[in-house]
Amino acid sequence: MAGHDEFDRDPERAKEAASEGPVIIMEEDQPSYVFMTYSHFERLRAKARSLIDRLSMPGLSDIELDVDRDRKG
């Protein structure tokens, strides 16, 4: 994680960190942005697309799902 000001002062350091994985940019002690390499972004996008494709398979709406929920409370 990096503060917004720290990110602005040293973007090269953020790039190096992003090569290891996503970097969360903080503003006012709250996560605000995620900085990552484009290849990491593409992998995430491909996974999301794969899930959407699976959920929109023809015939999926014909499958019955019986779910028992424990309703404590």
Automatic annotation (TrEMBL):
SUPFAM superfamilies: YefM-like (SSF143120)
Region of interest (Disordered), ranges: 1-21
Basic and acidic residues compositional bias, start-end: 1-18
Highest taxon in the source lineage: Bacteria
Family recorded in the similarity comment: Belongs to the phD/YefM antitoxin family.
Protein name (record): Uncharacterized protein
